[in-house]
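Protocol step 6 of 9: fold each sequence in the batch and record its structure tokens directly after the sequence line. For illustration, a two-sequence batch is reproduced in full.

Sequence one:
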Amino acid sequence: MSQKSGRRRRSSSRSSLVKPSLRLPRWDPPKTMDAVQAQLQDLRRELGIHNPLIGLDFATSLDPRPRWGFSQGRHALLERMIRAAPARHIDQLRQVASHLERYRAIDVGPLPEPPSRPVWINRQMTPLDAATIYATLVARNPGTYLEIGSGLSTLFARAAIRDHGLRTRIISIDPAPRAAVEEVCDVSIRGGLEQADLAPFANLAPDDLVLLDGTHRSFTNSDVTVFCLEVLPMLERSILIGVHDIHWPWEYSEMFTSFYWNEQYVLGSYLLGARDRVTVEFSTITPGLLPEAETIMAPVLDWWPGDERVWLSGGLLWFRIAPLP
């Protein structure tokens, strides 16, 4: 496919917040681990950092660089699972591309954060991720779309429901969604997944959808921990499950190293352990590995005014788990 002339390529940049008047507390060499923690807490208060500090007695790794797909090849077994049926990925891309006229009606953006309506250029997900949610809902017309973590994905889900007259109701589990998101939900469960009654999961039908886009971290009684150890076993009846910010068969990229996300590892272990019963329906990482992707997406790419790569890659994994025999 020939590239449009004059297509802009976006580049990432980093910016820093400078506080020239900041006065750091005087540092005295600590004598104990408790003293280290106390001084770090004092420093964080001075810097205005309020999220909890996690102290580690060992480094997370002796070589914390990304592993699979970077210093080594992609994770072979997970890649084989994800790419087991290329026809499914091709069909999904065709579904995504088929809604171009609807996409044209959505703002390219960016809009002021947080956006109050669907917008393609945003800080939360790539256009391919957002369009996949839209197209999947249209193709399946489920009775229920249940999200853990609501935001731009919710706005795109509501757009699909409105544009196509779907029967779908949106159930949102989120401790503090933005007002624009709250308005488009049919059922709002305000709190973390770890605080919620899990009955809505037990009541889902086989054609319903579940999407997790939460904290991306598995700790004691965190949303990821509850999802993997309690919710996923409840969904082992061919319900379509989506998890966002999953990059398999690649490792998290280096830009995420300081985030200490670990959801991908827990989910990857689950998928490998249940691989005889797991069917990967689609991964938005995969189009970059498919030679047909640009041809299928050509109408969208020809319309798109920015970097085409945002329509050829993302971080959303859709899969099903068959019940135990």
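Sequence two, same batch, same settings:
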Amino acid sequence: MSMIRCISPIDGSVVFEAPALAPAAAEAAVARAKDAQGAWAARPLEERIARVRAGIDRLGAMNDAIVPELARQMGRPVRYGGEFGGVRERTEYMAGIAADALAPVVAEESTRARRYIARQPHGVVLVVAPWNYPFLTAINTVVPALIAGNAVVLKHASQTPLAGARLAEALHAGGVPEEVFQNLLLDHATTERLIAAGRFGFVNFTGSVKGLCDGGCRRDRRRSGADGRGDLQRRAMLLRDRTHLCA
């Protein structure tokens, strides 16, 4: 069984250690997210926004504890005060544009016909978040994905596992159902297996193209007989565009 372990850069002590989810348990968790997503998407947009905002407010209330906790995990000095100012600003911006961004695009409205493009959630969104700005980078996708009616699975970096746990605690307290937002302790092999099996409707990966290719090109080679890197690089570039969370 693989372990997720966070070693503090401050003194080399173990800040966090826990077993990664077994593949079968990870599959079951993603299946629960898929089952719960439809009911979440059926809630009114205003309600989803209110619950996500309430969750972010709960995260802000934890900031005094989060700042030293984050320093222990990844070494950022406490004098910088954490990331909550940016988290709140980004949340409010994305909540504010949600109604317009998710509205249908009308192509024709005439006596003959009404043609439009309806926005539909992708389903289950996987967010693979990095350690360097563990709240800001995660929130960039977590918030719009939830608002758009998706379920979210968060796989946080092994250097900042407690950031994922704090996000889950806060969002659940704000009213986002536990199955709709899940922070899962996943190792690389299980993450790769889930992506390769098509368990997610959308994957947001923050990191290097090389890192994505190291985990994903093997699947593309098996499928296409080529090296697969061009396809993975195109996907890596597309993953930076959050506007497609409900396309």
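Proceed to step 7 once all outputs are recorded. Observation for sequence two: The CA atoms of residues 104 and 118 lie 5 Å apart.
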